[in-house]
Amino acid sequence: MKGVLLVNLGSPKSPDPKDVKPYLDEFLMDKYVIDVPFLLRALLVRGIILRKRPEESAHAYKKIWWDEGSPLMVLSERMTKKVQAKTEIPVALAMRYGEMTIEKGLQELHNKGVTEVLLFPLYPQYAMASTLTILVLAEKIRKEKFPQMKFTDVPAFYNKPDYIKNLSDLIQKSLEGYEYDQLVFSYHGIPERHIRKTDVTKSHCKIDGSCCNTPSAAHAFCYRHQCYETTRLVVEQLQIPKDKYCQTFQSRLAGDKWLDPYTDVEIDKMPSRGIKKIAVVTPAFVTDCLETLEEIAMRAKEDFEANGGEEFLAIPCLNDNDEWIQTVTNWIEEWAVAETVTA
Question: Domain range holding 337?
Fold first, then answer.
């Protein structure tokens, strides 16, 4: 029997520091997130970051927390229910970090008799700190707990025409009646070394502006290339002039060279360059979360206005948008049919 496991990032149980701290510990101690030797990672995370970060993050979570709970969790659950309503194939939801674990999700499918699982990381672009860590942990759990299960992974869907159409339609609808000076495509940042580590050719990725435009097998796992390609395809579909958009990277830790240009730095400079009305879209996420609701829609907006900006529009993620739900359902049904034919 076939089933689907949708996997998103996760969230603390509450916006209280006592719940935020263990969540951050699990997240930041992941060797695919902070990819340094364990002892150094433990010193950095538990000896330095977790001394102040839980309080700061808790404050940020409190600003976006809904009555129903974490926006990421609530929206992911809504998405799952809508997808399940459109297919007879069992669909479960799991998170890479937090209490809604991948093991619980697989157990839910196992209890329904599922032996073939479509493992669906909810990330358009591939990165070791998002996609890879999900795949590695899921496989470890499968071997230990569900050896009879067979996995099929959904690859990065950053360039799939139906996804690009869903994203483009959402942006176009959000921009109706809004005269913007600049549309900012803001992607989550990652350390540059992650790009080099996922380079299957071990020689292509130079992160110099040219390699992402040169065809290579490395692109199948290159987060930077996939971000720029997402932007290019959307801009092409919406026919946005070159001088009306830009691409940036948000969320970085100090002490490392991360992908740039940086979202906060670029947005803060825009008013002084005569860019007074902007819209920001965050295509690295399909679900609104702390990084979109607090970092962009609140903090970036406040900073932009403090620097002389006049209007700031934060475009929502796809969330449980009906067209996106249909796309996800179609991909699931296509997989089920293809697997049946192959069998």
Answer: 2-156+321-342
